[in-house]
């Protein structure tokens, strides 16, 4: 692995080499995994990817904020956001704890 961030094609090539699968099979599997994660997060509200983390849909309540340029108080409307919580195993592996 190089010093640059891995792209999708680089990840597919790496996984194909390590697993002995074809690049096409790995790419198809990756697309299926991503599509399933998106659908589960949308319909159920979350999906856990063991060892990696949890993708979840969260509702944020309406709140008051402040315009930093003018100092004026503004109302921020409620909205739904997507969050990813990194698994403890991933943190420990990356940070070396």
Question: What's the arrangement of secondary structure elements?
Answer:
Elements (H helix, E strand, L loop, with lengths): L7 H12 L3 H21 L2 E4 L3 E8 L2 E4 L6 E4 L2 E8 L1 H8 L2
Antiparallel strand pairs: 1-2, 2-5, 3-4
Helix pairs in contact: 1-2
What does this structure look like?
The chain is of the alpha+beta class. 42% of the residues lie in helices and 29% in strands. The chain has 2 domains: 1-44, no CATH class; 49-97, Irregular (HU Protein, Chain A), CATH 4.10.520.
Count of alpha/pi helices:
3
Largest sheet: 3 strands, antiparallel
**Strand order within the widest beta sheet:** 1-2-5
Q: Helicity level, as a percent range?
A: 40-55%
User: What would CATH call the homologous superfamily of the largest domain?
Assistant: IHF-like DNA-binding proteins
Roughly how many Å apart are the termini? Answer: 22 Å
- In the CATH classification, which architecture of the largest domain applies? Irregular
Q: Which class do the helix and strand fractions yield?
A: alpha+beta
């Amino acid at each position: 692995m190089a010093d640059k961030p891995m792209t999708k094609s680089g990840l597919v090539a790496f996984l194909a080499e390590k697993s002995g699968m074809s690049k096409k099979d790995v790419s198809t599997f990756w697309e299926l995994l991503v599509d399933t994660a998106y659908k589960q997060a949308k319909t159920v509200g979350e999906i856990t990817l063991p060892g990696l983390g949890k993708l979840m849909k969260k509702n944020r309540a309406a709140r008051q904020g402040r315009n930093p340029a003018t100092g004026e108080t503004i109302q921020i409307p409620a909205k739904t956001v997507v969050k990813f919580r990194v698994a403890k195993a991933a943190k420990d592996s990356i940070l070396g704890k």
